[in-house]
């Protein structure tokens, strides 16, 4: 595997060997071949020695994308997985843009496989055709007589490794539309035995994260940030900091956004920052506390919503519900949540010999910091380079519309003489207290049921803090005032719900808000699936049967949603719950993927709930890497469960109350005894798997707890409702 | 200060109160032990001191007593430790940032409790956080490693 090499090292090596074969795309979007990286930025690089490297345009935060995209290349060329390595792509939106993000290069929304599936296979297929054509020319036979398997070209009595034909292949014209393998020919795609390419490096300590980078002469920068959003640093006193060995200097960031402390090493930076006395101007600071924010959201739910999300007649829905013999009503509250990836945020900036800037970063959204740095350094885009490194988790945090931490690093660097690289490091306390958060939301849902237990009306009000408004994404995501990320998973539910009406009201932000693994689905799925459970119970019907009744198969989505629901129920032994156990179920579509989960618990809220088993069924189209999909479901379930058990970010007078893992306690190993995942066999195009496992996990648990007693948890986290966990 | 890490002797000119974690990472360039919380609440910095798992963020340079082993020093030449092999076989790592600490904790645990059940594994590993949620595989890998260690 080659990912440990830096991009610069890679380019140098690629340039030095000369006779390489690179497959990329020309400015007009057509596939092209070249012999070195000065001519094009590639998707696949084959060295003169036959070493194949997938150039991965998405970053790797653990979701398995580097392995996934490499699998596509290896499949189409005809390689074993141990014959391919990967490197991360440079920042070049023209070549590496995410088709689902317009003209931006970036990772998010569980889009990596969906937007790369054809592109990376085409690049691999083009490489294969070029190699075979070159071999055929050398041997004087027809390309059709040759095969390429496990890196060996064979046919017409000849056999040679593909590396023998690299130089000749690089002189040929790339095929415009190379033939892709038929799914019946797949040996790697869909193969559960395919291993991740990064397991060994992550098991022997050699994997290099951005935090591990140590450039010669580097300074560590840490920033004293305001406790309240909007407070400004006006001055500082570093007389105590100067006593810290290794302290270099401090400087106020532009607009008083904070005070940067420069030091020779990380420990000195931490000590010096602690010793720094900063004067804050709090005149524009946020001063609200959590109870006030919650009260504002609840007041918004009481009022007529600002936006009619799905265009239906609210009065008609209300009338239908009012006329119904049975009405089920619930109000939900979802707190702020932090992402808290294991690797605290960091990145390093250095000046390059050609007058440019190089950013080393576990970079989720290269185009954002690329543009921001070009502006800050007043340089053309081509003078800014990004070396994407492994990221120790993200869950959305590393992709901010403002490129927040990269901009901090750039400003910290600008204020020096630029002779020394600057590595910006966030502490865990910075991460918990000064970051971006899953916004707080409230839902109020009223459901009318007929005497026969059919839904006759569903009025659903949502109020909370928009993620997209005020960002560069507003124009794309916000339509008619509605931030889609506030209502996704509710207003666009695949269920057939007669008389459904969805309304939205924005409330004022108290913190910076950001997408958090599964974004709006993190709260909409909970409200939808707890309400479905409550409605089923009120109708006197089995929760699975009740849901299936509202998924009659009128659309492909309904059929797929019913498919995972049925599969999860069957595998979990739904309806045959063992003595002393309780089960709850939830199903949800997000990011094009359908997931149903059954939570099985023992105990009860008073004496301690133990999560014995989570059974998951997922339909993500073609399962490219089944083991990666399983791992993502396991992780996403844990992420969803861990936060609803006991996590919330609260504010007192505008300042975050929590500071580190003791009071923002993530899931631990003993919290879920077992997770089982079943993957639906499908020939549909592949969709994402990083996020969709999260939304149904929390409502499945809530529904299991309700089944164990009579406690309906509508205000999160669960431990705030007197629920203890064993 | 003098210290022995992964069988090599080092001399480091650091303040006596600097935590071992930063001595290793910033001074010696040994980056397998990770910074995750700085207050012994996540286990990402776990190393062995004379074979026992300790949190490197909580041991001042002056208090280091005994040989230090980090994730980089676990393999014998090209042969990975049984626990590392089990981690790879079960495809435990996602982002991987915490896994060095997880593996060191498991190595120390299995040296004390050779044949643990789920409950014992959960108790021993509960101080090592993984935000990716790789816990089911950690449990499975510890069991696989235990079986292999016990079969000699």
UniProtKB/TrEMBL annotation, chain A:
<dbReference type="InterPro" id="IPR000674">
    <property type="entry name" value="Ald_Oxase/Xan_DH_a/b"/>
</dbReference>
<protein>
    <submittedName>
        <fullName>Xanthine dehydrogenase family protein molybdopterin-binding subunit</fullName>
    </submittedName>
</protein>
<dbReference type="InterPro" id="IPR019546">
    <property type="entry name" value="TAT_signal_bac_arc"/>
</dbReference>
<dbReference type="InterPro" id="IPR052516">
    <property type="entry name" value="N-heterocyclic_Hydroxylase"/>
</dbReference>
<dbReference type="Pfam" id="PF20256">
    <property type="entry name" value="MoCoBD_2"/>
</dbReference>
<dbReference type="InterPro" id="IPR046867">
    <property type="entry name" value="AldOxase/xan_DH_MoCoBD2"/>
</dbReference>
<dbReference type="InterPro" id="IPR012368">
    <property type="entry name" value="OxRdtase_Mopterin-bd_su_IorB"/>
</dbReference>
<dbReference type="InterPro" id="IPR006311">
    <property type="entry name" value="TAT_signal"/>
</dbReference>
<feature type="domain" description="Aldehyde oxidase/xanthine dehydrogenase a/b hammerhead">
    <location>
        <begin position="204"/>
        <end position="284"/>
    </location>
</feature>
<dbReference type="Pfam" id="PF02738">
    <property type="entry name" value="MoCoBD_1"/>
</dbReference>
<dbReference type="GO" id="GO:0016491">
    <property type="term" value="F:oxidoreductase activity"/>
</dbReference>
<dbReference type="InterPro" id="IPR036856">
    <property type="entry name" value="Ald_Oxase/Xan_DH_a/b_sf"/>
</dbReference>
<dbReference type="InterPro" id="IPR008274">
    <property type="entry name" value="AldOxase/xan_DH_MoCoBD1"/>
</dbReference>
<dbReference type="InterPro" id="IPR037165">
    <property type="entry name" value="AldOxase/xan_DH_Mopterin-bd_sf"/>
</dbReference>
From TrEMBL, chain B:
<dbReference type="InterPro" id="IPR036010">
    <property type="entry name" value="2Fe-2S_ferredoxin-like_sf"/>
</dbReference>
<keyword id="KW-0001">2Fe-2S</keyword>
<dbReference type="InterPro" id="IPR051452">
    <property type="entry name" value="Diverse_Oxidoreductases"/>
</dbReference>
<feature type="domain" description="2Fe-2S ferredoxin-type">
    <location>
        <begin position="1"/>
        <end position="74"/>
    </location>
</feature>
<keyword id="KW-0408">Iron</keyword>
<dbReference type="InterPro" id="IPR036884">
    <property type="entry name" value="2Fe-2S-bd_dom_sf"/>
</dbReference>
<protein>
    <submittedName>
        <fullName>(2Fe-2S)-binding protein</fullName>
    </submittedName>
</protein>
<dbReference type="InterPro" id="IPR006058">
    <property type="entry name" value="2Fe2S_fd_BS"/>
</dbReference>
<dbReference type="GO" id="GO:0046872">
    <property type="term" value="F:metal ion binding"/>
</dbReference>
<dbReference type="InterPro" id="IPR012675">
    <property type="entry name" value="Beta-grasp_dom_sf"/>
</dbReference>
<dbReference type="Pfam" id="PF01799">
    <property type="entry name" value="Fer2_2"/>
</dbReference>
<keyword id="KW-0479">Metal-binding</keyword>
<dbReference type="GO" id="GO:0051537">
    <property type="term" value="F:2 iron, 2 sulfur cluster binding"/>
</dbReference>
<dbReference type="Pfam" id="PF00111">
    <property type="entry name" value="Fer2"/>
</dbReference>
<keyword id="KW-0560">Oxidoreductase</keyword>
<dbReference type="InterPro" id="IPR002888">
    <property type="entry name" value="2Fe-2S-bd"/>
</dbReference>
<keyword id="KW-0411">Iron-sulfur</keyword>
<dbReference type="GO" id="GO:0016491">
    <property type="term" value="F:oxidoreductase activity"/>
</dbReference>
<dbReference type="InterPro" id="IPR001041">
    <property type="entry name" value="2Fe-2S_ferredoxin-type"/>
</dbReference>
């Amino acid at each position: 595997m080659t990912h440990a090499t830096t991009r610069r090292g890679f380019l140098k090596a690629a340039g030095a060997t000369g006779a390489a074969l690179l497959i990329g795309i020309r400015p007009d979007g057509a596939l092209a071949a070249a012999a070195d990286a000065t001519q094009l930025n590639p998707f696949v690089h084959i060295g003169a020695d036959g070493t194949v490297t997938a150039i991965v345009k998405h970053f790797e935060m653990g979701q398995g994308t580097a392995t996934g995209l490499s699998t596509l290349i290896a499949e189409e060329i005809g390689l074993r997985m141990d014959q391919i390595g990967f490197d991360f792509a440079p920042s070049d939106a023209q070549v590496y843009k995410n088709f689902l993000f317009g003209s931006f290069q970036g990772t998010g929304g569980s889009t990596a496989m969906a937007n790369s599936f054809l592109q990376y296979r085409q690049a691999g297929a083009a490489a294969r055709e070029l190699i075979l054509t070159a071999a055929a020319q050398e041997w004087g036979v027809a390309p059709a007589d040759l095969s390429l398997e496990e890196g060996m070209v064979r046919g017409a009595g000849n056999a040679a490794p593909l590396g023998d034909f690299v130089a000749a292949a690089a002189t040929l014209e790339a095929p415009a539309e190379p033939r892709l393998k038929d799914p019946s020919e797949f040996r790697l795609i869909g193969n559960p035995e395919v291993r991740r390419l990064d397991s060994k490096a992550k098991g022997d300590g050699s994997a290099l994260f951005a935090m591990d980078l140590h450039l010669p002469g580097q300074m560590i920068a840490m920033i004293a940030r305001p406790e309240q959003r909007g407070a400004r640093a006006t001055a500082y006193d570093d007389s105590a900091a100067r006593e810290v060995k290794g302290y270099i200097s401090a400087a106020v960031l532009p607009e008083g956004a904070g005070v940067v402390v420069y030091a020779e090493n990380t420990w000195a930076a931490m000590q010096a920052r602690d010793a720094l006395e900063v004067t804050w101007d709090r005149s524009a600071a946020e001063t609200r506390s959590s109870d006030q924010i919650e009260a504002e959201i609840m007041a918004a739910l009481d009022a007529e919503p600002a936006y009619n999300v799905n265009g239906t007649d609210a009065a008609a829905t209300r009338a239908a519900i009012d006329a119904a013999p049975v009405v089920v009503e619930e109000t939900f509250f979802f707190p702020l949540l932090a992402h808290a990836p294991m690797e605290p945020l960091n990145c390093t900036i250095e000046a390059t010999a050609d007058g440019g800037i190089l950013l080393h970063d576990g970079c989720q959204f290269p185009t954002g910091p690329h543009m921001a740095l070009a502006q800050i350094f007043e340089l053309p885009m081509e003078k800014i380079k990004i070396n994407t490194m492994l990221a120790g988790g993200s869950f959305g945090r590393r992709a901010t519309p403002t490129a927040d931490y990269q901009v901090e690093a750039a400003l910290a660097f600008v204020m020096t003489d630029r002779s020394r690289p600057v590595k910006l490091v966030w502490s865990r306390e910075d991460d918990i207290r000064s970051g971006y958060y899953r916004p707080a939301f409230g839902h109020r849902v009223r459901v009318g049921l007929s005497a026969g237990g059919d839904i006759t009306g569903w009025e659903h009000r949502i109020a909370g803090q928009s993620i997209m408004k005020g960002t560069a994404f507003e124009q794309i995501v916000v339509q008619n005032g509605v931030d889609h990320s506030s209502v996704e998973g509710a207003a666009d539910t695949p269920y057939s719900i007669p008389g459904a009406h969805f309304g939205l009201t924005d409330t004022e932000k108290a913190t910076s808000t950001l997408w958090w693994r599964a974004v709006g689905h993190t709260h909409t799925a909970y409200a939808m699936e707890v309400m479905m459970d409550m409605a089923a119970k009120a109708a006197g019907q089995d929760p699975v049967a009740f849901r299936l009744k509202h998924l009659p198969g009128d659309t492909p989505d309904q059929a797929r949603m019913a498919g995972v629901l049925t599969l999860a129920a069957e595998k979990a032994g739904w309806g045959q719950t063992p003595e002393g156990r309780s089960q709850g179920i939830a199903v949800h579509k997000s990011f094009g993927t359908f997931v149903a989960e059954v939570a099985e618990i023992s105990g009860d809220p008073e004496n301690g709930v133990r999560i014995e088993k989570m059974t998951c069924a997922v339909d993500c189209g073609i399962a490219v890497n089944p083991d990666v999909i399983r791992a993502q479901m396991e992780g996403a379930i844990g992420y969803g469960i861990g936060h609803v058990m006991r996590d919330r970010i609260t504010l007192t007078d505008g300042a975050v109350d929590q500071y580190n893992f003791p009071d923002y306690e993530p899931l631990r190993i003993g919290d879920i005894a077992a997770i089982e995942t079943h993957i639906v066999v499908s020939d549909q195009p592949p969709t994402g798997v990083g996020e969709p496992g999260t939304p149904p996990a929390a409502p499945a648990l809530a529904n299991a707890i309700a089944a164990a007693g009579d406690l309906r948890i509508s205000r999160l986290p669960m431990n705030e409702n007197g629920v203890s966990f064993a | 200060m003098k210290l022995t890490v992964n069988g090599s002797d080092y001399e480091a000119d650091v303040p006596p109160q600097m935590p071992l974690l930063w001595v290793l990472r910033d001074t010696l360039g040994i980056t397998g032990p990770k910074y995750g919380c700085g207050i012994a609440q996540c286990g990402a910095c776990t190393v062995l001191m004379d074979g026992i798992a300790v949190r490197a963020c909580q041991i001042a340079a002056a208090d280091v007593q005994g040989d230090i082993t980090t994730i980089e020093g676990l393999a014998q030449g090209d042969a990975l430790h049984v626990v590392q092999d089990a981690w790879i076989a079960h495809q435990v790592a996602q982002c991987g940032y915490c896994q060095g600490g997880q593996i060191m904790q498991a190595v120390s645990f299995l040296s004390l409790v050779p044949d643990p059940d789920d409950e014992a594994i959960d108790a021993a590993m509960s101080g090592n956080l993984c935000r990716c949620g790789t816990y089911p595989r950690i449990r499975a890998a510890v069991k696989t490693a235990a079986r292999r260690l016990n079969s000699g």
